[in-house]
Amino acid sequence: MNEYAYEHEYDVVVAGAGAAGLNAALVLGRCRRRVAVVDAGQPRNAPAGQLHGFLSRDGMPPAALLAVGREEVARYGVELIQGRVDHAEAAGRGFAVRLAGGAVLGARRLLVATGLRDGLPPIPGVGERWGQDVLHCPYCHAYEVRDRPLGVLGTHPGAVHQALLLRQWSDDVVLFRHTLPLAGRDGARLAARGVRIAEGAVKRLVVDGARLRGVELADGRMVPREAVFVRPEFTPQDGPLTALGCARDADGWVITDGAGRTSVAGVWVAGNVADPRAQVVTAAGMGSAAAIDLHQDLVGEELALLAR
Question: Integer distance in angstroms from the first to the last C-alpha of the chain?
Fold first, then answer.
């Protein structure tokens, strides 16, 4: 690993300081490992006012959780680096991790926890109200809009499933079919759950001041709604993994074992970069599992070197 002029060398470099990356850093810091966490400060859940479903943290602002997490890992000597990992490649027994701007970190192991991007449909109003009254996850947000008139935008095949779930929280759920074809028994299933279907393309969301008022269709009709759910297109932010050649599944997501190990020795992933369904609490658990496996792997390497 001497061919690179490293800024510093670490046992583990963690790319991403969301729940997965910080929880991994916490466990590794407590293992007395030298750890650096590199993060650009652009969390996926920044638009949301609160996070839910996380025992003891329910209702906490996402930014507050991350702030507490950063304070906790710093107490164990974890270094927090403001920046972005642009590239990583194998070097000697570890990795050269290049940051935007040119700095290179040496790492015996690499954990990528850089999350995903939410691709929103190009319907006026969706992006502007995202995370407020345009929502995605029923388990994260539906309770807060319970018993209100809800809508689901038919911009993704997952919209039918969303609508069926949301009927648990409201008696007034409308699926705006937009361009979504209904398959098989979809129509019968929606009717059985009491979900109404609004035919016609969606033109825009109607916003009055700081509130969603409804959904306007292309024919001019406006259906009053107080919150709308939409299924984004998920794209993993896995640029650091590209040059490493980690195996991927048919949908392009990195393949891992139960502890986050990839097909490339020394590289782990955790959180939404590997699993788009992972909530904050799930991502934190994935980070913990990866950290324990990472530490055990490092101990194995150290024993092998001593035995030479």
Answer: 19
Q: What is the CATH number of domain 121-229?
A: 3.50.50.60
Model pLDDT for residues 129-179, shown as the tens digit of each residue: 999 999 999 999 999 999 999 999 999 999 999 999 999 999 999 999 999
How many whole angstroms separate alpha carbon 97 and alpha carbon 131?
Answer: 33
Every domain of the chain and the residues it spans: 9-118+233-306, 121-229
Write out pLDDT tens, residues 267-293.
999 999 999 999 999 999 999 999 999
Q: What's the CATH fold of domain 9-118+233-306?
A: FAD/NAD(P)-binding domain (3.50.50)
Q: What's this model's pTM, rounded to 2 decimal places?
A: 0.94
**Beta-strand pair 227-229/150-153:** parallel
Q: Which of 167, 162, 148 is nearest to 211 (CA)?
A: 148
Per DSSP bridges, beta strands 116-119 and 222-224 are unpaired
Are the folds of 9-118+233-306 and 121-229 the same? yes
Do residues 78 and 28 lie in contact, with contact meaning Cβ atoms separated by under 8 Å? yes
Judging by beta carbons within 10 Å of its beta carbon (0-12, 13-18, 19+), is residue 128 exposed, middle or buried? exposed
